[in-house]
Amino acid sequence: MAESRPPKRPKISRGDDDYMPGNILEIELCNFMTFDYLKCKPGPRLNLVIGPNGSGKSSLVCAIALGLCGEPQLLGRATSIGAYVKRGEESGYIKITLRGDHKVEHITIMRKINTNNKSEWLLNGNVVPKKDVAETIQRFNIQVNNLTQFLPQDRVCEFAKLTPVQLLEETEKAVGDPQLPEQHRALVDKSRALKHIELSLEKNEGTLKQLKERNAELETDVERVRQRDELLAKAEAMKKKLPWLRYDMKQAEYREAKERENDAAKALEEAAELLNDLKEPIMKQKEEKAALYAKCKKVSNHASENAKKRTELMEEENKLDVELKGKYKEMEELRRQEETRQQKLVKAREEVAIAELELENLPLYVPPKDELQRLTAKIAELDYSAKQMRQKKSQAENEINHKKSSMNRIKERLIEMNNKSTKCLHALQRSGAEKIFEAYKWVQDHRHEFNKEVYGPVLLEVNVSNKDHAAYLEGQVAHYTWKSFITQDSGDRDLLAKHLRFFDVNVLNYTGGDGPQREPFEISEDKRALGIYSRLDQIFDAPIAVKEVLISQFNLDYSYIGSEKSDQNAGEVRKLGILDFWTPENHYHWSKSRYANYESAVVNQVQRPQLLLNNLNVGEIEKLSSEQRELEEIVANLEESVKRFHDEERSLLNQSANLRKQWEDISITVQNEQKKRQAIISRIDQKKKFLKLMEERDDLDTEIAKLVDQATKYNIRRFHNAMEIKDLLVEAVSYRRIFIEQRMAFIEFDAKIVEMEANLKQHEKFALQASLHFDNCKKESENCRQDLTDSLKYAKSIARLTPELKKEFLEMPTTIEDLEAAIQDTTSEANSILFVNHNILEQYEDRQQQIEDLAAKLEADKKESTRCLAELNNIKGKWLPTLRNLVAKINETFSFNFQEMAVAGEVSLDERDMDFDQFGILIKVKFRENGQLQNLSAHHQSGGERSVSTIVYLVSLQDLTNCPFRVVDEINQGMDPINERKMFQQLVRAASKPNTPQCFLLTPKLLPDLQYSEACSILNVMNGPWIEQPSKVWTAGDRWSIITGLVGDTHC
Amino acid sequence: MASSSQSRCGSGSAASRLRNAASTFCSDSQPLLADIRKTVLMMKDIAVQLEKDNLPDKAKELEDAVIELVGLSELSVQFSSAVQAFANAYQPKEEFTNFNTLFEDELSRFKANQSSDVPKNPVVRQFKEAVWNVHHAGQPMPGEEQEDIVMTSIQSNILNITCPLSGKPVTELAEPVRSMECRHIYEKKVIMQYLKSKQHQCPISGCPKILQADKLVQDPLLMIEIEEMRKMNRETDVEDYTMLNED
């Protein structure tokens, strides 16, 4: 280690408390970024702000910047002040206390911020404009926007990006001499102004030279101006003659147009005349054509009539031919008929002879009258007998109908009763006797096997008319009884029990009249008075056996029936000796004990009947069935009688029919014999007539002669028709020849007419063209006349034709072409004089004045240029030596410090002659022995190397700086441990010097075993939910040494 | 130029129209010729009947009428040919054509040649034979030898009795057509199918003529001749019947 260098400056005004003016004494935050509340009291020299990532170290840096009039953009985080209010809060404040010029003087700056991006500034508790705070900060040379003084975390890497020019500017600001930047700006401005003046001076000199040259050229053109003016005047005079010459030309044109008009009129007249000559022959030929057409039409009509006549004659010919053939056929027919007639005549004569012979041989026949009479009498007798039988049969049939009607009524009744039986059986089935139907059916099917009548089920045999009585009876009789069958013979009982065992029904056997004597039924006055009016054995109908069984089994004869009155006087009823009775509401029953002569009474409520729902009388069914069987027997007997009567009647009728037939046969025989004789006689008569008729036929020759005459007449008619047709054919051929001749002539005429009309059309077109031509010529003539008039007016308006003018015109050319050529030549001669404008004299004089003015201005500019240059040199003489001295000092310190970090380093000033805006500071470093010094840039060094270089440079500036405090944020993160230790030592050493300002170094961690001097202060950020207790100890924000009680020997 | 062109158009139009008129005239003449033929046949029948009725004078008149009609028929055919030839050769001229004079000259020239031939026309000879046979059957006509009579009696305009393709008799054809080249008769549908099969020679064996579809015509004369053949066949049948009757 080299010997320590002596300090460069004497100790500046550091107070007894070791603080300098402008140092930060206290920082207080509320609802700022991550802090609810923070209070910090930094030390006067190096302050190490330590805390884990995200605990808010950089927030402290932001607070310092914003609290001292820094803009949000400076920090590289949010760009609006409202974003720095803690999340969820509406407002917060930053309060920074600075040391004044004396120990007891404190300057408190407070900035209140809210989420609406608004700020409020307070200075020592008073609300003031922002500029007042800015002035105070400026007084202490606090520059939060100077990267060499204030290096936020987010802009650390930006420092390394500064260009040499920018680095120079920042260095000038950082060293603390305010004149350096101002002088630099003045030099830049004056240098630019000087260049401007020199440029203007050069330009004006060029312009002056050009003006002088131009004026020299103009002197020779003055003479030429006058010459040109004379030529132009001459051309103008010649132009006056031009309209008059045009007038003469127009006059000639008019005469020519007039002549053409006359020629056109003559041509038109000739064409019209020719047209009329041509039309007449066409009309004549058209008339001839029409005549030919009429002739063709006439001939055609004649031909049509001729054809019609021929058609009619042909039809007549066909008709006559058919009739003629008919006549010939008729002749043949007549001849054939004659032969047939002769044959028939012979045959007819033979037939007459045969018939007459037959008549003579026919015997005479006599009808048997006696036999016919006998048969007639017997027939009458038989018919009478049959009639009587028919009457008997009718009577029997009537009787049958009567009986059948009665039987139908009984049948209907039985059907109805059977329906009731079915209902009762259903009731029993519902009450528990599932197979009652099968049992009943079996008994019905096997009724013939029993010795005596079998009744059952009991329900079907009992008929109760009163509903109330039915309820009493059903309540008195046990349930099993209603589905039981009752027999009257022991054999029947055994048979029934054997077969009905499977059907779960009971069999009761009634043994006759051996039962005890029953008490007679009587209602005494006493009983009647108490409402008793009947007994159960009196209220139902049933077969005797069924009735006796029910009465004996269930004591129906001891059970009385009463009314509501009986209900009310039940006790009285008992006194009458009744032990059991029924009322509409209740059933009363008394029973005696056999041992103690003790009576007990039971009263039950009357239940609705479940089984006795229908009136059913099995006996009646049996009775009706018996009646039905009886009627059926009667009907059968009657039907047999009817059949017998019917058979007997039929027999009689048959006999009568036979006899009648015999009678008829005899009658027919008689008639046939008579008819036969009559037929023979009739046939003979007929054949004689026929023979006579045949003999009277006409003569054949006469008929044939007549037909021949008719045929001849037809042929003659055909002859005449044929001759007429021949004449018509000759005429038709003639007509056709004439027609074709005229038709062809017509066609030729039509072609001629078409040709002539085409020729006529051609001439019409020619005439039309002639007419159009005439109109055009006439119009043209009129236009020429108008042009002539206009031309004359125009010529007069230009110049009146005076004698002097006429004399002058004589010297000029006499034709328009020559005159125009002369004008053109004169004008060209004038224009050949080459100069641009006519104001040569004015321009010459103006330019002379400009030359004089410009010369004066040029002299003034030269003086100004000299003055500006002198002033620039003056400022440069002050600024450049100071800057060079500054850079030399920085270089000395940088080289020394950098040698400890790496191999070598150098800082130099990059001078650019008069381009003051291009001056810059170059940092050259070398990290390896075998390398060369390289400019610090992103292209030559790594990030870590740049960080080391930058920090060393900044530390070097601290020896020269005039800032009250400095902030560096996390600049050691890119270094390796070796460089970091070296850097830390540099910082500690610098902080120990008297001239070093207050410094804040923010870092999340530090290396172990670092050597700290007493100038260092460690500030731990107390933030988070688990350090509430320790943070209370540091609520005052004092340093660690004070808190631990080490106050005394040290000043920190 | 325009005038000349238009004039030529008119002339061409006239020539074309004249050709159309001539063609129409020739076509329209066919029915008239058929009528003449039919009338001649009718007259022959009537003459035979009149001869049977012993009216020879009227039969003679009919003979003269037949001669006149046959001459008229030939004259009409010649006239049609003259008209057709004129129309095909027509050239327009400045003066008008006197068609009457023109055609009269043609007809005069034809008549000079015709007068010596008409009585020898086959139709006229058939007429005379029919009349002669009424009372002189089996005997030769005056001035005629036996051979001539036989040749004349069998002569007819129908050259083939049956259609060579379908085999039907010509009297039973539905649409008989005749070739203008060799005058053979065919069934129209059958012969058209025959021509479509790339064969163009007349199907009659030994006939060397080449047929064309547009040369097969169905003219009224053909129908008349076929009808005439039917009548001849019918007369033969009647004769056979008569003989049976005699037996």
Automatic annotation (TrEMBL), chain A:
The keyword Iron-sulfur does not apply. GO terms for biological process: double-strand break repair via homologous recombination; sister chromatid cohesion. Residues 194-288, 317-413, 621-655, 837-875 form a coiled coil. It comes from the Eukaryota. Gene3D superfamilies: P-loop containing nucleotide triphosphate hydrolases (3.40.50.300). GO terms for molecular function: ATP binding; single-stranded DNA binding. Pfam families: SMC_N. GO terms for cellular component: nucleus; Smc5-Smc6 complex. It is found in: Chromosome; Nucleus. Keywords: ATP-binding, Chromosome, Coiled coil, Nucleotide-binding, Nucleus. Signal peptide: none annotated. Its main location: nucleus. Residues 25-992 form the RecF/RecN/SMC N-terminal domain. SUPFAM superfamilies: P-loop containing nucleoside triphosphate hydrolases. Belongs to the SMC family. SMC5 subfamily. This is Structural maintenance of chromosomes protein 5. It comes from Glycine max (Soybean).
UniProtKB/TrEMBL annotation, chain B:
It comes from the Eukaryota. GO terms for biological process: double-strand break repair via homologous recombination; protein sumoylation. Pathway: Protein modification; protein sumoylation. Residues 145-231 form the SP-RING-type domain. One of its GO terms (cellular component) is Smc5-Smc6 complex. Its main location: nucleus. Keywords: Metal-binding, Nucleus, Transferase, Ubl conjugation pathway, Zinc, Zinc-finger. GO terms for molecular function: SUMO ligase activity; zinc ion binding. The keyword Metal-binding applies. PROSITE patterns: ZF_SP_RING. Pfam families: zf-Nse (PF11789). InterPro entries: Nse2(Mms21), Znf_MIZ, Znf_RING/FYVE/PHD. It is found in: Nucleus. Belongs to the NSE2 family. PANTHER family: E3 SUMO-PROTEIN LIGASE NSE2. This is SP-RING-type domain-containing protein. It comes from Glycine max. The gene is LOC100804379.
